[in-house]
Amino acid sequence: MSNVMRFGAAADGKADDTEAIRHAVEEGDGVLHFPPGTYRITSPIEINLSERGPLGIDGTGGTARVLMAGKGPAFRLIGTHGGTGDPASRKSNVANHQRLPTIKNIEVEGAHSEADGFELIQTMQSVFEGVMVTRCRHGIHLIERNRNVLISHCHVYFNTGAGIFLDGVNLHQINIAGSHLSYNRLGGIRIERSEVRNLQVTGNDIEYNNHRSHKTAPEPTAEIYIDTTAEGASVNEVTIASNTIQATGSPEGANIRIKEKPDASRPPGLFAISGNVIGSQENNVHLTGCYGVALSGNTIYSCESRNLLIEDSRLINVSGNTFRRHTPKYGTGVRFVDSSDITFTGCGIHDETDTGQPRLTALLELERCERINVTGSQFINGSIGVAASDCSHVTLTGNTLHDIREKPIAQHAIHFIGKGAGNLATGNTIGFTRGKSIHGDLTSNCNLTVDQ
Description:
The protein has a 44-stranded parallel beta sheet that branches. It has three domains: about 1-155, no CATH class; about 160-305, Single-stranded right-handed beta-helix, Pectin lyase-like (Pectate Lyase C-like), CATH 2.160.20.10; about 330-450, no CATH class. It is built from three helices and 44 strands. The protein is about 5% helix and about 55% strand. It is mostly beta strands and about 450 residues long. The chain starts with a strand and ends with a strand.
């Protein structure tokens, strides 16, 4: 292996080891080996894979630290892959010299306000395992074009930008698994201006990714932040599963925030969000302009505004989720606005306090929506169970709407107002002892048919 100390690196955290490490890249055997110590560098270690050939970076079981005291990434890996994941699309130099750059068991710490951890450009089959990036701007920064990226067992912690940042990148096939992505100011995983397919986010702990620990002004962000509103951007084929995704509240913040364009020439969608524990943000899950999303089997708790907020979206399946409020400081609830073709099935929304919601809102709110099916769900201890305004073709069947507090304070079980047609409530069980169980404003052509 290319032991960087044999090329002149001091590893004392004081001397500038930049040139020694560059010498090891140029003259070494391809495995850049860092023995235990702290390696201070002042400009990026740039590795041209087409010239260097297959490359590995090894930090000796996590005992080596690279201290980036300059602007830019500590390591910049540059390839020439312009194809897809199809083997036939690879040029021979990519297949033989550039495949599988592997970075393992090393820490990068920033010592400059514009220091980044790693930057990847046009790479093929890059692997990060056992890597820590802290006190940088962006942890792992993917730009231009990359294919088949694996990130696992990493700690991307307390950075001023995004932990893992897909930034104007064309990227297919990326797996992020078994990692801690925490306290990054602009998000744990952030995607902007990018074309992404096949993103798998599984088994991670993604927490507290906002401005609070950095003591800066708030900016809209999320633990997982996906924005495809820029021209040419799109994100499809995404699984977010079996993660713990928690935070502290921040203005316009969310645990999962997805912003798509509802009128895009290629419909957005193909998202599965399943089996996660999600909580304690302004809106826990906030979807705008989405199409074709399955949200199932999640525990989503305590919010400053809504557990789930869906706007301008269609073909959304919400099933088997638990929505709960566990402290008087926060609220609970789900809201759909200007959306259609939604099923809400087998969910439970519970207010577990005796104080009622911080504001007089329903556990499930529908505004200017159509073709909404709400079946087999529980709405417990809401100020209002289900409320709809200017909605049509809403069907409520087989639901339980109860206030089980010792001193019930609920106002209505079902409350429809405004204009609408074809709404139906049937086969529900209602247990409220105060106010009206069902309130349909028929004078506004709401056409609420009730069969309890």
